[in-house]
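Render this sequence as a predicted structure.
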Amino acid sequence: MRGRYLSPSQRRAAAQRALGDLGADRRNHVLLRIRCSASHHVAVVFRTELGPVFVSVVGFRAHGSRDFADVAHSPHGRGTEYVDLLDGDRHADDELPAHCECGARLLSRRALRRAIDSAERLVLVQ
C-alpha cells in the first residue's frame, strides 16, 4: 500500500477495511489517543496491517465512547465515524476532522505522525 497513490475515498475505504479486520478487540491496537483540554475523547489512532488508522466521530452530537451528553439522544444522533489512513499524502499536511463536546476541530496529520514516532500515547488538543 505504501508508495501507491490512493484517492482520498480509496484511502478511507482501505482504512475502514483494516479497522474492521481488527474485530472486537480493536482497543488492544491503540497507538494514540487524542483528547481535548476538558478530557473529552476527540479521536484515536489504531495500529493495523496497513499502518496507523485515524478514527473520530464527527457531526451532530459527536461524542467519544466515554463522553456523556446531558440529554438523551437517538442512536442516529451520535454523529458519523470518520476513518482514514494516517499515512495519507506524505507531502501534504492535510487536516483530519474531529469533534467532541467542546466543538469541531481539525487535527494535523503531520503532528499526529510526529506524536506516534516519538512514542507518545496521549495527545491533548486545545
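Summary. The two ends are 33 Å apart (CA to CA). Confidence is low (pLDDT under 50) at residues 69-74.
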